[in-house]
Amino acid sequence: MEVAQRSLSFGREKSFRQPEGSHPRRAGENRSCASEVARRREDLIVAQARDHDQQEQLKTAISKQVHSELAAAEIVAADRLPEPKPDDILALEAALRLAAKSRPEIEQADLNIRNQEITIKATRSGLLPSLNLFATYAPQGLSGNQGAGGRIVRAGFAESLSQTLHNTYPDYSLGVSLGIPLRNRAARADLARTLLEARQLETKLRQAKNQVEQDVRRAVVAVTEAKAEVEPAGEAVKLAGQMLDGEQEKFRLGQSDTFKVIQAQRDLATAEGAEVTAHSNYAKALVQFEQATGSILERNRIEISDATNPRLG
Asked: How far, rounded to the nearest angstrom, does the alpha carbon of residue 284 sit from its chain's CA centroid?
């Protein structure tokens, strides 16, 4: 948007400096200036609309609810786009090791395999013989009418409780249970299913590792390409600025016309836009690299525990 604003300011300045006259050539130059100013004003309107849309997307992303104060606030970028550095990313081998350790899908796939190994052990246990040893002991007390020495003795709750506490009528048992599975087809089918699921999980783990490695390599290539585009874009801006200064000096001396100056201004604006795009692509490539290596949260000092904090957001 700043590029569009500067371009419009250049066009208006040249339009204001252009004197009025009835000469056909001068009239044509005036129309060219007016047309260029209108086109640059249209470019500025498009840039402002795109900037407003991006601000709304950012507000929605960083807040749980976009209230009226946040909706009315203007987001101003305080950080400039990053400049290329020799050590801005890790070497390929180091990046691959970091991704293998940090990417959550690999960790999740490995955890699924370990859980499946526990399931396989439990399923194999169903095919083995089982030996159970059990023992029971229960003290009892009798109540009601009882015969003792040819006479009937009435015993109530107190007598029954006393017999229980004194272990008068104990009840105990001891036993052994042996189970030998013969042609346990259900257990064998469960084991075959769990083994097949384990192989599927191992395949998914290999696929996840291959995808992570591909993501890292593509991210490294993207950063390299974006870095290579930044320097030529800056040189193009310098050359376009020098061409504009030379054309304006020639115009001041009467050796050039308005059309050439406007064309030089347009070339400068195009070069500045290309430079901004190159820096933007470089910043996006760095983010892509951080995502590929799984280091984007750590690099931006974001903790997963913050998501559960009701005070945040």
From this structure: 14
45-83: string of b/e by CB count within 10 Å (b at 16+)?
A: eebeeebeeebeeeeeeeeeeeeeeeeeeeeeeeeeeee
For residues 146 and 93, membership in a common domain is answered with no
Q: What is the rounded end-to-end Cα distance, in angstroms, of the chain?
A: 29
What would the two tokens of residue 239 be? 């050359």
- 207 and 251: one domain? yes
The whole model's pTM is what? Answer: 0.66
User: How confident is the model over 255-310, as pLDDT tens digits?
Assistant: 877 778 878 888 888 898 899 999 999 999 999 999 999 988 888 777 776 666 65
Same domain, 245 and 114: yes
What DSSP assignment string belongs to 259-302? Answer: HHHHHHHHHHHHHHHHHHHHHHHHHHHHHHHHHHHT-HHHHTT-
**pLDDT tens for each residue of 32-63:** 666 766 777 777 788 778 888 888 888 888 77
In terms of residue numbers, what domain contains 7?
1-78
- How many CA atoms lie less than 13 Å away from 206 in the CB half-sphere? 5
pLDDT band at 184 (very low <50, low <70, confident <90, very high): confident
Q: Are 312 and 63 contacting, i.e. CB atoms less than 8 angstroms apart?
A: no
**Same domain, yes or no, for 101 and 218?**
yes
Same domain, 295 and 311: yes
pLDDT in tens, 224-245: 999 999 999 999 999 999 998 9
User: Which single residue is written with the structure tokens 């406007």?
Assistant: 262
